[in-house]
Write a sequence for this structure.
């Protein structure tokens, strides 16, 4: 049943004008950033040749594009996730879903995987855009893959946050604002302190994403995103379970 719900949510996203507008805007912004970074790289390429161990197109063009993509995702995912449960409440169809012979976990995971599968599309498209640079030069494929993994994990975490926010209200706009507030708080919380040993740094989404842009894939950062996603999925399930108990 998880796959059935996921397929339903994925179809709903693909027929939604808002989803296509967000996706198109996402790709246009990143294509423009990629071309701008590429133009700047070509302008200084003659100077880089004289340097020992000079950075290449992967470090100076592709990684910054993925960094911008992560910020765009923080803004875009709340718009894509706001209707997951909130619209069901508004249309009064959530009661039928909760009364169906489905567990709350199946409902939450189905909706999450549907949104996550849609978000995987722009992540892969960005990777494909970067890969086209291999036609005219050499790329650090390990760094490219690390960036793809990092951005996919960010997308999964933001999708879980958006789903939880959508479970809190019957108003999609309120759900979007709530998800954006939580996402921005986790993204910018490291600005509250400059001490790298501060406990605040432990929950910083940006702090755990940055190593992926540098080609460093560690178990600690993988565990952070797994815990972040799992936490908000558990909170979403608990909220829907409370709704089921209230009838």
């Amino acid at each position: 049943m998880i796959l059935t719900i996921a397929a339903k949510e994925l179809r709903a996203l693909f027929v939604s004008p808002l989803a296509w507008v967000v996706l198109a805007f996402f790709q246009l912004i990143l294509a423009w950033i990629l071309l701008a970074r590429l133009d700047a790289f070509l302008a200084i390429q003659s100077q880089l040749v004289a340097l020992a161990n000079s950075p290449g197109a992967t470090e100076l063009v592709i990684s910054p594009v993925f960094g911008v993509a992560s910020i765009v995702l923080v803004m875009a995912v709340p718009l894509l996730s706001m209707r997951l449960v909130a619209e069901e409440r508004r249309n009064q169809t959530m009661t039928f879903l909760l009364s169906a012979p489905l567990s709350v976990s199946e409902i939450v995971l189905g909706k999450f995987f549907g949104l996550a599968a849609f978000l995987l599309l722009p992540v892969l498209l960005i990777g494909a855009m970067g890969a086209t640079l291999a036609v005219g030069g050499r790329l650090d494929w390990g760094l490219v893959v690390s960036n793809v993994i990092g951005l996919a994990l960010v997308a999964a975490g933001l999708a879980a946050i958006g789903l939880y926010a959508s479970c809190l209200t019957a108003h999609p706009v309120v759900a979007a604002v709530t998800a954006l507030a939580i996402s921005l708080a986790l993204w910018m919380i490291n600005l509250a302190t400059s001490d790298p040993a501060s406990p605040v740094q432990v929950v910083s989404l940006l702090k755990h994403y940055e190593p992926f842009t540098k080609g460093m894939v560690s178990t600690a950062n993988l565990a952070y995103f797994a815990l972040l996603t799992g936490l908000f999925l558990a909170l979403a399930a608990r909220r829907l379970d409370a709704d089921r108990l209230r009838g």
Q: What stands out?
A: The longest helix spans residues 17-48.
